[in-house]
Amino acid sequence: MKHVSVAGKIISLLLSAAFLVACSSSSTKEEEEAAAAAAAAAAAAKAAQEAAAASASAADAQSEANRLRLMDAAAAYGNVFYFAYDSSNLTPEAIAALDAHIAVLKSSNSTIRLEGHTDERGTREYNLALGERRANSVRDYMVVRGIANYRIEAVSYGEERPIGYGSGESNWAQNRRVELVVVN
Amino acid sequence: MKNLAFILMNIVLALAATGVRADLTIEITQGMDNPTAIAVVPFAWQGAGTAPEDVAQVIESDLVRSGQFSPVARTDMLGLPSTQEEVFYRDWRALETEYLLIGKASPEPNNGMRLDYELFDVLRQTRVFSGMESGPAADARMLSHRVADKIYEHLTGVRGAFATRLLYVSVTRGGAGNKDYYRLTMSDSDGARPIVLLESREPLMAPVWAPDAKQIAYVSFETGRPAIFRQDLATGKREQLTNFQGLNSSPAWSPDGRTMAMVLSKDGNPDIFLMDLATHNLTNITKNFAIETEPAWMPDGKSLLFTSDRGGKPQIYQYDLASGATKRVTYEGSYNARARVAQDGRNVVMVHQRDGNFHIAILDLVTNRLQVLTSTALDESPSIAPNGSVVLYATKSGDRGILAAVSVDGGAKFRLPAREGDVREPAWSPYLGAN
Predict the structure, then answer these.
(1) How far is the alpha carbon of B380 from chain A, nearest alpha carbon, in Å?
(2) Which ranges of chain B have pLDDT less than 70?
(3) What pLDDT, in 10s, does the model give residues B131-175?
(4) Which pLDDT does position B126 carry in this prediction?
(5) Contacts of residue B396 in chain A, CB cutoff 8 Å?
(6) Chain B interface disruption, residue of A85, A88, A111, A124, most B CBs within 10 A
(7) How far apart are CA A94 and CA A81, in angstroms?
(8) How far apart are CA B130 and CA B151, in angstroms?
(9) Half-sphere exposure of B303 (CA within 13 A, CB side)
(10) How far is A115 from chain B (nearest CA, A)?
C-alpha cells in the first residue's frame, strides 16, 4: 500500500507541472515566464520525486528489516510443532513458536502447508485422522489470530513419514508433529 | 496347550534357494500340536531336461506353513515313487508318515503344464484322493498351490487358500534428507513372484482388493495430498476416484463390487461415505464430530463395521444400511480399531490395545468372546485369508516393519520378513477365478 501512495503523489506532482505549462502559452514574454515557471515546476517535481523515492526506499528498508527480524525470530523456533501422545492440543512451546510464525505471515502474502504427523502407535488410518486433527489445530489457531483460511492447506501424513524410524519415546516424540512448509 | 506346541525353530523355507527372486521369505515360528505327518515326494518330470519348477516343494511348504502338517525330509525317503505301483507302504510307515502325496508334472502343448497327483493313507494302505491341475507352465507355482488347496481341503475339511495373492506396501528408506521409496507389490500367498504395481516417492497406503480380485484400490499421496485410486490388474489402467480437501482414505469395496466405502474429511472431520462406483455419487453414512474411519463390509453387504472415537477412545461400531442404526460392537479394552470380517461373518479381527501394546485380536460376534492372538507390541493391519484360517498382519522386528501370520486359533505362526526395507499393510486376496 505504501508503494501505491508514494507513486500517486509523484504522479500528481507531475500532472500539476504539466498543467502550468499548458496554461502559459499565449505571448512571448509570458512564454518566457511560463517557460521559467515550467522549468521551476519541473525541477520541483523532480526534487519531490527524488524525495518521495528516498522516503519510500527508507520505509521499504525499514519494513524489510522488520520482516527479516520476524523471520529470524520464527526461524529460531523452527517450523516444527510437537504434540503429546494421542493429543492435538497445542503445547505452550508450540504456541510460542506459532505466534512468531503468525507475525511473519502477517508481513507477507505467502501461502503455507501444515503437514500433520503421528508416531507409529495405533492404526494407520486412525493416525491419518489424528495427524489431520493436529494440522487443523494449528490452522485454527492461525486463523483465529488473523491469517486467512485460504492461505493455509492442512494435509495429514499420519505415521507414513517418520523422522525417527525406531520405536521408543525418543523416536515417537520427534514424529508427533506438525510441519509448517511455505508454499510460495 | 497349543502355544507350547511342536515348535519348528525358524525353519527357513528359503524361496531364493529354488532360484525364485522373492522379496519376502518365510520363517515358521510355531506349528500346531500333533501335526499330521505328510510326505510330499518330488513330482516326476515327464518332459525334457529338468522340471521348470519344484512343484512338490511348493505344495509341501504350503501345507507346513498352515501349522497343521509336518514334512518328511526328502533325504529320509527310501524311494521316490510317482505311480501307485511304486508305493511301498512299509517304507513310509517306518518314517511315521501318515499321508503320502506323489505325482507327475508333464509339459502340455502351447507352453502348458499338467500336474497329476495321488494321495495315499499310509496306515490304511489305500489311495484316498487323486486329481489333476493344468494351466500355463509359467504359472507352475499357482498350479502347485491349487494342488495344495485340494489336499488341504481333503484332509482338514476346510477349503484351501494357498492359490491366492497378497498385496502389501513396502518402503525403502531414502536416507538423510531424502524421501523414501514406497512400493505397492502383489505376490503369491507365500510371498513368491512379487510384482511391483506402483512405485512412488510419496506415501502409498491402504491397498484393498475388489471382490472379483481383478481390481485393487489404494491411497496415494502422489498429488501432494491423499487421494483414492483404483487400478485394473490386467490392464494397469488407473482411475483417481477422489480429490477432496482433507482425508481421502480407507477404501473398502462392497461385496457386490458396486460401492466403495471410504473416509473423507471434506466436511470438517473424518466421516464414512459410500461412493456408487458407476455414478461417483456420494452418501455420508456417519455424521459425527468424532473420528470415523476404517470401514469394513460385512460379507452380506447389509452393514459395515467402522472405527469411531465418539466415546472418547477408538472402538468398533456397526452401521446397518437398511435402518441407518449404529451400534457399538467392542467393549473390552480402551482401543479396538480397524476391523476385518471373515467370510463366515462371525469372526472379526482387529487391532486391540492391552497394557499399552497393540496386538491382533479376534472377536466372535456370536459368543462375544475376544481372544488376543499375538504377543508382539506393535501389531497392526490384520487381513484374514478367504478361508478364514489365517490372519496376516504387520508388526515390527527390531526397527523394521515385517509381515507375520497367525492361525485364527493362535496355534500356528509364521513370519514373512523382507530382504530389504519395511513391509506393511498386507491385504489377502479373495479366492481367485480358475486362472
Answers:
(1) 6
(2) 1-22, 434-435
(3) 999 999 999 999 999 999 999 999 999 999 999 999 999 999 887
(4) 96
(5) 120, 167
(6) A124
(7) 5
(8) 9
(9) 17
(10) 10
Identify the pLDDT of residue B418. 84
Please indicate whether, in this complex, the C-beta atoms of B337 and A128 are within 8 angstroms of each other: no
Spatial contact of B104 and B116, defined as CB atoms under 8 Å apart = yes
Domains, chain B, with CATH or none: 5-24+164-428 (2.120.10.30), 33-156 (3.40.50.10070)
The three cell numbers locating residue B106: 508333464
Question: Does B337 lie at the interface with A, CB-CB under 8 angstroms?
Answer: yes
CB pairs under 8 A, 24+ apart, for B398-404? B399/A165, B399/A166, B399/A167, B401/B171, B403/B24, B403/B168, B404/B374, B404/B376, B404/B379
Q: Which residue has the cell 484400490?
A: B217
Above 70 in pLDDT, residue A32?
A: no
Q: How far is residue A152's CA from residue A182's CA, in Å, rounded to a whole number? A: 9
**Beta strand ranges found along B137-220 (DSSP E):** 165-172, 181-188, 195-200, 204-209, 215-220
B350: its cell numbers: 482387529
* pLDDT at residue number B338: 98
Q: Which amino acid is at B24?
A: L
What Å distances lie between residue A82 and A85, A94, A180, B143, B346, CA to CA?
Answer: 10, 7, 12, 53, 42
Query: How many other C-beta atoms lie within 10 A of the C-beta of residue A129?
Result: 30
Q: What is the DSSP letter of B3?
A: G
Instruction: Provide the 8-state DSSP code for B332.
Output: S
Q: Give CA–CA dist A38/A30, Å, rounded.
A: 11
Cell numbers found for residue B403: 509381515
Residues 6+ positions from B73 with CB-CB distance below 8 Å: none
Query: Can you read off the three cell numbers belonging to residue B90?
Result: 512299509
Q: What is the pLDDT of residues B250-305, one digit of tens each?
A: 999 999 999 999 999 999 999 999 999 999 999 999 988 999 999 999 999 999 99
- Hey, what's the torsion of the CAs at B314, B320, B326, B328, to 10 degrees? -50
Rounded to two decimals, the ipTM of the complex is 0.88
Sequence-ordered list of residues with C-beta below 8 angstroms from that of A105, at least 6 positions apart, any chain? A112, A142, A147, A151
